[in-house]
Amino acid sequence: MIQEPYTPSKESILIVDDTPANLQLLAQLLSEQGYKVRMAQDGTMALMSIQSSPPDLILLDIMMPEVNGYEVCCKLKASSLTKNIPIIFISALNEVFDKVKAFEVGGVDYITKPFQAPEVLARVEHQLHIRRLTQQLSEQNALLQQEVHRREMAEAEVRQSLSKEQELNQLKSYFVSMVSHEFRNPLTAILGFAEFMRDFSQQLSEEKKQEYLCQIQESARRMTALLNDVLSLGQAEAGKLEFNPESLDVEEFCEDLVEEIKRVNSAQPTIIFSSQTQLTLACLDKNLLRQILTNLLSNAIKYSPEGSTVKFNLVCQDELAIFHIKDEGIGISPEDQQRLFESFHRGKNVGKISGTGLGLTIVKKAVDLHGGQIAVNSEIGVGTTFSVAIPLNHPSQSDEKESD
């Protein structure tokens, strides 16, 4: 028998257990948290329910008559329709429970009876969170693949020689390799720390738990930043990067941004912000300005030694906002400066410092949309200064208002 109580909310969860009391207890607990809950009292009915409407997560009892939990799990993992649904096994403390087998057949976690509500909710939400991340990555990868394919088709029409075709293939290989590498490291960290906290939660101190949570958050930030860079570059290349200027207090914006970056990079080089301006408001695109300054400040921090200083100076003069960002880092060679704003290009002296080669490309396009200019002055082993000059009132803004 399958019951499907209505709950207007987030992910759907199927509970499979041959004990009605367990079904009701888990259903009530999860429904109160806003999950859409369905129930099945045996493995056969569960398989029928899943085939007709796959849930987002399954709580599956192991010891059931006719078709046990292991068999149900094996059948689900053998189907392309259901193989990616996370399965959390249910087992009583006094039952013989083969944990190794549970994971071998495809389970991702387990809970034991009698149920502890906080533990059940934590394990369910943890697996659903991983599922959401995985789905988001799949969707973004699909979009990236479509974009790569679109560019390949467009460029195929204008290829003039074998060397051009080889260059495109090398670029594609580097792009795929770079994205895979940059995603793999933070994703591995997220999964590793999450699994460690799950398996050894009782032995960990609160300080260690907070440390691991911070590592998970930092890895998630890295993945988000990479996705934003790739999507911004795709929009810029397609001419779809939006320019929406608005009234903005430039000095306050810079101060807030510096504080935000300091919170994330507390142990890194010190950022010192200074301003020589009496200006209160300017007309700039807040999102594009954030991308410009965040990329330049992040690079200054990343390529500078700990204990050094990054100087960030704002000057407003002659109807221009001029941003100077000076570091004491590794510097950029004259040869690399010639290709500084090319997609995927990185300096020969970066060594093992991670990066995608996309940040400065996005900076240049965002500066161009403002009608501004960017310059660099650098010396190997001494440091680098980037200077960005942006008109305080972009001409296209007044034109757009008049056309409205």
UniProtKB/TrEMBL annotation:
Membrane topology (UniProt): Multi-pass membrane protein
Checking InterPro entries in the record gives: CheY-like_superfamily, HATPase_C_sf, HATPase_dom, His_kinase_dom, HisK_dim/P_dom, HisK_dim/P_sf, Sig_transdc_His_kin-like_C, Sig_transdc_resp-reg_receiver
The record's GO CC annotations read: membrane raft; plasma membrane
Superkingdom is: Bacteria
Q: What EC designation does it have?
A: 2.7.13.3
**Keyword flag Cell inner membrane:** no
Query: Where does the Response regulatory domain start and stop, copy by copy?
Result: 12-128
Q: Which residues form the Histidine kinase domain?
A: 178-394
Q: Where in the cell is it found?
A: Cell membrane; Membrane raft
Signal peptide range: none
Q: List the GO molecular function terms.
A: ATP binding; phosphorelay sensor kinase activity
Task: Return the PANTHER family for the record.
Answer: HYBRID SIGNAL TRANSDUCTION HISTIDINE KINASE C, TWO-COMPONENT HISTIDINE KINASE
Q: What protein is this chain from?
A: histidine kinase
Organism listed in the record: Symplocastrum torsivum CPER-KK1
